[in-house]
Structures
1.
Amino acid sequence: MRILHTADWHIGQRLHERQRTDEHEQFLDWLLETIQAHQVELLLVSGDIFDTALPSSESTNLYYRFLYRLFSETDAYTVITAGNHDSPRHLEAPREFLEMGRIYVVGTADEPTKCVVTLPRENPQVAVAAVPFLSESDLRHLSYETEADRNERYRERFKAFYADCVSLMPVELPKILMGHLFVQGGQVGDSERNVQIGGATATHISDFPEDVSYVALGHLHRPQTIKGTDYPVRYSGSPIPLRFNETSYHKAVYLLELSDDGALVCDKEIKVPIFKELCIVAGNETSVLSDAMTGDWDGKYIQVKLKLTTPRVGISDEIRQAFANRGGEVLSVELELSETEQGPKISVEDMKRPEEIFEQFYRTKFDGEPPDEILRQTFNELVEIVEESK
Ligand SMILES: [Mn+2]
């Protein structure tokens, strides 16, 4: 059976307020072509389908249009699980309806029985444990517990859940596990929601059961295989770079072929094309401007990291214009003043008010989330104190 593993689409994601619908649309078109070209029989999507719990109608439309084409233009089965960015209940709301189109969606995982599917339905060749993101808040909080105890308890629960899934699978079928979680040893970027990484929700490679053919994971955005098992435990990564610093490596999906006895007869990385190039340009004023004027920036998104000795009003606009003249779009200018090199880097776009800069900084730091009211007030009080002391 030929299987394709992908995850972390993050449909609806914005990069510095830019909508990325075109990139997602191109990715989904490419994915459909890839599925057709390789005669894929099973598509696995391991969580974070959408970037937000309540995706826009445009994002929702893109997703369902893709599912419809998958159903009508291929014979593939599809298994989709919810990630930490998805709303488990929203994602699985059309569950029964989608099953008519050979599409299996699992959002919430109260019972292992709900996660196990054998496919194709009439003549099973593979068993899949479609395990979505298991939230830490599902664990009842015990006040006397230390964080290490809590971590242990999460690991135990996770281990038992997978073991139960495997025990529910027909012995003779090859087994695939899905998951949206952090395995210790994985390489983390900064676009994964960090509260879910490390800390209490980290699991260990040895927690995965034996007698499995492949573990298809989502959550980390860099494609990678975690060492320590005799079968691949792998993150496919996100198909489009979600941050500028995700451009130093290729984005990928994985094509697998399982023999009837569960052996991996083909295990191949397929690089996802770059639909929109993201570039980082760093340097002082002269070098950045000269790069802007000599490079080919047509259709590219650019992040500028500018080293300055003294701040200068209007420099951001000048740089934006220089890139725009050659077709590039600067999404952020990060100023780095040499004497404050130790401090946090704040992207000072256009001489904004402190509250706006704070909000912008907070959003880049915490996945687009705005700061809450209490934090806002605290920040404003701080600004007042500083103003008064001047
Ligand atoms: Mn993700």
Note: The first helix runs from residue 21 to 37.
2.
Amino acid sequence: MCQFSFNPYCELHPDWETVSLNTFGSDDIFPFHKSLDVYQPTPLRSLGSLASAIGVGEILVKDESLRFGLKAFKALGASYAIHRFIKSRVEAETGRRLSIPEFLDTAGSGDCGSYTFCTATDGNHGRGVAWTARWLNQRAVIYMPRNSSQARIDGIRSEGAEVVVVDGTYDQAVTKAASDARRNGWVIISDTSYPGNMGIPSWIMAGYTTIFREIDDILGDQSPSAFDTVFIQVGVGALAAAAAWYYTVHRRNRRPRLISVEPLAADCLLESIRFGCGDTRTSRGDQDSMMAGLNCGTPSILAWEYVKRGMDFFMAIPDDYSRRAMRLFYHPCGDDPRLVSGESGAAGLAGLLALMESDKMSSAREQLDLGPRSSVLLINTEGDTDPVNFRNVVTTDA
Ligand SMILES: Cc1ncc(COP(=O)(O)O)c(C=O)c1O
């Protein structure tokens, strides 16, 4: 049974200057990503037949399964943050401010110091950290929760990183990574922020804005009218924070409605919105959703500042909606293109299905004005990062 809430803290024009550590406006984010050899903008697909079948006017999908050959968007954050970290170290030690080409030269010649980068992950962020560390000839140690799939562990090891599987949840892996990093002098590249760890998570969130910049580049002048509702799947809330910042700033006067989608088993934003009196709360779910990337029990406190003031609606769904969404992407309607979308990647479509179909949500659907005149933006945040489960899901009928 889905759970949901409108956001009583939502502001039409939030003043982000009041948030500490706002790095979203940094002007080197998109140029940094574009300077990488592997860079290609990921495509924006239109699924017109699926839109008609579901009862909305248009569905656009930004396909992040094709990002950097890593099957997920996450390396946008890890690469930008590690680059900022190394630049700040070089500047502190030598007084030199590296431009992007100078950073790439320095990193390429192995002249940027020697670090061990460490993080907790459900899979994709850890792979992004490991990939960046390998590119820069650095070491990476990645902590994963006990229910991690072998394919996701292998994906991280294939980037040359060490993987430590913790006997606990994602939240417990975060705690263990932080204490081991402190003891060993490693650098934490965490995508979630908590007291004492804010700077790097702020750069990671900022790195995700490249997704929204690319959408604007692809749509050009059409962008402001191309979609009116955006579904964002949420783990700790960093991607949702990037969307909230981006659209409240860049679409100030024509802001799309922003909808957060979480698994019921890890509904930390919904729990916070409903019961936190403005503060974060931990999900009461057991963090065992099939949507592994969203299995996070505690919001990032920095991301919370943005989602609390920028998102319109929060919902939590059972895994079955994600299974159906994976199948709908993989077995397209009419002339729609096929998309390979993993458990968390399909969560945005899963949220849309739940809103359009559930009787319990009919008044929310009306208030959100979701219907044949709506144009919806979804982000396919991952491809088949667990190929075995992916195959099982898309080859099963109901
Ligand atoms: C595929 C996928 N989608 C969405 C998310 C959610 O991102 P965030 O944790 O920033 O909310 C994650 C997080 O790891 C992910 O792996």
Note: The two ends are 18 Å apart (CA to CA).
3.
Amino acid sequence: MKSLSQIMLSLLMVVSLTACSSTGSTTSTDTPSTNESTVTDGEYTATATGFGNGEVSVTLTVENGEITNAVVDTTSQSEGYGADASEGLASQIVEKQSYDLDVVSGATVTRDGVSDATKQAMEQAGFTTESTETVGEDQTANADVLVIGMGASGTMAALKAAESGATVIGVEATASLGGFGNAAQGMFAINSVEQEERYGEDGLTTDEDYWYDHMSSHNNQRGNNKLIRTFVSEAKNTVSYLLNHGVKMFLSPTAQQIAHFDTDVVYHRWNNADPFTHLGAALEENNVDIRYNTTATELIVDENGKVTGAKCTTEDGGTLTVTANSTIVATGSFASNAELMEEVLGKTVYSNANVMAGTPLPGVEMMWNVGAARGDLLTMNHGVNAGATVTVDQLTLNSPILWVNNQGKRFMNEDLLKDTVEFTDAVVAQGGTCYTIVDQTTVDRWTDMSQENTGTWVHYWDRFGIVDENGNPTIYHAPIDIETWNADFETLAASNEGGVFDTIEEVAEFIGCNPADLQETIDNYNNYVQTGVDEEFFKSSESLIYTVSEGPYYVTKGHAGVLGALGGVNTNEKLQVLNDQYEVIEGLYATGNNVSGISFGSYQDVEGVGLGFSLTSGRLAGGYAAEAAGYEAVEDTTELTELGQTTMEEASTATISGH
Ligand SMILES: Cc1cc2nc3c(=O)[nH]c(=O)nc-3n(C[C@H](O)[C@H](O)[C@H](O)COP(=O)(O)OP(=O)(O)OC[C@H]3O[C@@H](n4cnc5c(N)ncnc54)[C@H](O)[C@@H]3O)c2cc1C
């Protein structure tokens, strides 16, 4: 398992690569004029607001009336996304001699901030930046079904509607398919063909009733039970649908989260570079008209309150008005909307958390604007990571050692680490940050390379295992070599995200807590380890291994990882959007992360629910939207076509060979 920062980085790379053949640009039509008579050479700096209200700055060097160098500082932005976009944006500024910068996947809001700062700095230098009025054409289009957002759920919705006979237009804000589905690795399903193959027809120990009960109980029955019920029984058909379209799905050898080790494996994985190639080919075969770099901005409603399409902005700044019998909003919720995120997480948590950037314009607002009731809004809290790129956090922030909050006190039974959602929620409840502390004795043990395979657990995941598709441990696990350990702690110290301290007083100073409180926490904890009884939080004796005794002490600051946002509107089980009287808004469907009620309050603690529900809700909504336009939706079952059978076979071979 990679740390969130590593996942973010690889996602950025994947998305950038897929997008590089067709660069998106801002819809701004302003272009600077390099009128040498008004431009004064020199260095000019300006700042602006980027993602999550973080400040970005740009310093331009102007020589002979030209921008010869740009230094972009995006260190306040999400690691792996905006924070890593600085060099690319700086070269664009010099190359284009402009602030009109291309979209950077996963860092659009950062790009907007850098554009703003560049514009200001250019104006300081005397460049003219007025609009040159090169707005693109206004266009119209019509289809049976309009899909807004061609991510995980939108792709499925468009394909299913088109296969059922409907004409379909898909508008997608970026230059590529898949959205955050490109980052996701697996989906939940029960009673799938793959489970049948592994467990035999009667071999599963859990069934739809078990998972329905688990998910509805997780929500304290406050979610959308009918929709959960639908999801739980329909997800298996999504697995077959994907296999039948050539997407290689395979069943993980074991559960991915320790919390589910006792149940059947429900996590159906895919090689996330592959699915959107197959689904993209199928969309093309079915004549789905995809308009990339096109952003829907507003839904259109007729005099009866029916949604009849949407207004969009095209790449060249023109408008595209699409009219359609049914509109499916599949925009992936609101993670990039700082105001909503602050509202949901609280200002402190939002500023402390490691938030995955979302898309610039939350589709949920478009739906609220046409009368959709506001559903439950929440975030996908998933994993705790260091605030700098290191590997030690996979040990220090993934082990049930001593964890403290910013007051130097324990705040959970660290065995919660068995479930990624639960321990992250516990950190969120402390303001989004926490600290782990290990002493030199622990470090000596964790860096003793001779311990490998001795059976002594040095790391939580070594005890329970977290595995890849081949059953091999994927998380970075101890022992770890001392060079990496030391280098990583230097990196953490340099960025004030941790460090090595000689005394508990110094640790307390770093954390910002009362040294006496921290010492008391440590004394109590050491006592629990010695007696094997955690009187405070009842942690299992197996996890009471490491005391915090002699210094130096190694401290890692953890930040709650937030994969994205969930919820926005309520729907019925046909994915039709409801108003505040729980009535259907005709012509309007929502899918994927935009839908409230699968998770309520906290993201489901079952592997693959985000992706599983997105793909399944998209498939279903596409069918219902086609039916609303008078077509008979193609029925999906678990049955495999010839292609599906071959794909399943290939997927299991790919699993063995490690792809
Ligand atoms: C790093 C990471 C790992 C994950 N791993 C997993 C996993 O293993 N299992 C799991 O179950 N879930 C996982 N998830 C969650 C999963 O990816 C999401 O639940 C899923 O992708 C949501 O699908 P969606 O269709 O709602 O949104 P997305 O897939 O995000 O698609 C939304 C699309 O809409 C487009 N868009 C937005 N606004 C507009 C607009 N106004 N006009 C036009 N287009 C617009 C966007 O550009 C995007 O392409 C992960 C998420 C992340 C970030």
Note: The chain is about 35% helix and 20% strand.
